[in-house]
Amino acid sequence: xxxxxxxxxxxxxxxxxxxxxxxxxxxxxxxxxxxxxxxxxxxxxxxxxxxxxxxxxxxxxxxxxxxxxxxxxxxxxxxxxxxxxxxxxxxxxxxxxxxxxxxxxxxxxxxxxx
Amino acid sequence: xxxxxxxxxxxxxxxxxxxxxxxxxxxxxxxxxxxxxxxxxxxxxxxxxxxxxxxxxxxxxxxxxxxxxxxxxxxxxxxxxxxxxxxxxxxxxxxxxxxxxxxxxxxxxxx
Lengths: 114, 111
Known about the structure:
By secondary structure, chain A is mostly beta strands. Chain A is about 0% helix and about 55% strand. Chain B is an all-beta fold.
């Protein structure tokens, strides 16, 4: 079975540019999560969806960040405009809606804002 | 909210046993997960505890005490490939499958 698929794997862009990260969750999973990981702050939850509906976006840093899930097999995380402090690894994860079922992570997008 | 504490770094010898501790203070609790993350890779699931006691899975075991807000991950017969970061994560007491992660314990296995 295919795991969580993220694209691109690496992104280098200049400050002020729009960045769009993409995620395809595991088929049949009800939940989708976006995380950001840095050395300083570790793995932080940004937002998560249940059945395509955003449930908790309290981790989204500011209005420059937005996320959508138009259908069960696709989600995007957008940063506009990007800033150097947004440089991090962004992970997408998905899981079943059952107690004890773990979240499965994609390989991440390594984002560098110059 | 959730507060999760783990040691930042640990070093152990190949073939030995190491115990990685995790303490948590939460407004709700619905299970604790351990993940392994090698450098430059994604976290991968290791174990899950929701009831008190020990869960064993091959060379890895995980223990939970809900009354003490405490868990540990035990790694036996350490191998060089076990060098990685180990993340403790607590599932929120509310509905959903939201996890709060600790900052991770970087384990270095030496010869």
